[in-house]
Amino acid sequence: MTDATALAPVFDVDQQTFEADVLEASLTTPVLVDFWANWCEPCKTLGPMLEKLAAEYNGAFRLGKVDVDTQQELAGMFGVRSIPTVVLVKDGQVLDGFTGALPEGQLREFLSRHIQPLEAPVADETGDEAVQETPEQAINRLQQSIATAPDKPELKLDLALALMRAGQTGAAEAQLVALPANLATDARAVRLRSELDLAQALDAAPALTELQQRVQANEADWEARDQLGVHLLLQGDAEGGLEHFLFILQKARDWNDGQAKKRLLAAFATLDDAELVGRYRRRMASLLF
After folding, report:
1. Residue 172: which of 158, 186, 184, 183 has the closest Cα?
2. Which member of 13, 22, 33, 40 is catalytic?
3. How far is CA 67 from CA 15, 38, 100, in A?
4. Is position 188 within any domain?
């Protein structure tokens, strides 16, 4: 694999480079392979969206482009019958794929099932070092971008996410509600809605220590246990929060119209730890069925 190809978020693939640039490379970084052709109109819609997402994911995956007119044998290896066809190669294996020009929201949902974007570093004023952008800096940057490009609604979703990271839940919800329909179903928007629902559950809730005392005094204080679980989840103790929701589900499944199950599903939508989510999904299912 050439150094240039290794660094490029988007690159061309042919029969000779496929093994090194796709199969071997996917052992460390997932590769999305886009089978396309110049005469394919849907390809002209999908291609730019995939390239944009490859840049946005900041190296979390790379996009390999296969021109089926010049690489017919390679397309045949994958059984490509129509284009665009996209396959995700990870750990040397084809993991998932789809055909047709999906809308951006569905593309993001597809990627979110397998890949988490990497945060892009932001250069400091001297340009000598890379520093992490704060939520407040992100908000200012996105507000300026929206002012100059108001016809790009995806920037408003980015702003809603930055507002949530800054703890401005009211402003984040206002941005989320105002999103167009095609972005309202975006995987990031769905996740943000779950985060907002959890944060709003603590409106006027007692302090963490008081909730802990109430649960210690009465393990069947379901309201206190529910709010304690949300507190722990939002503070980063995901397992501690999930345990409280499972306890309610086990002991009082129908409490507050089945709220424990709703809390668990909302929590699963906000967590990045696939192993943890899978483990607690199985435990939830064992209690429900």
Report:
1. 158
2. 40
3. 11, 8, 15
4. yes
Distance CA 260, CA 246 (A): 7
Q: Does residue 35 carry a pLDDT above 90?
A: yes
Residue 236 exposed, middle or buried by CB count within 10 Å (0-12, 13-18, 19+): exposed
Tell me what the mean pLDDT of segment 198-217 comes to: 90
The residue to which tokens 């019958």 are assigned: 81
Is pTM beyond 0.85? Reply is: no
Enumerate residues 6+ apart whose C-beta is below 8 A from 263.
198, 201, 226, 229, 230, 245
List 22, 25, 43, 139, catalytic entry: 43
Strands 31-36 and 62-67: parallel
* Domain harbouring 277, CATH code: 1.25.40.10
Concerning whether 43 is annotated as a catalytic residue, the answer is yes
Instruction: Supply the range of the domain harboring residue 227.
Output: 208-288
Q: Which residues pair with 9 in a beta bridge?
A: none
Q: Judge if 8 and 108 occupy the same domain.
A: yes
**Known active-site residue 109:** no
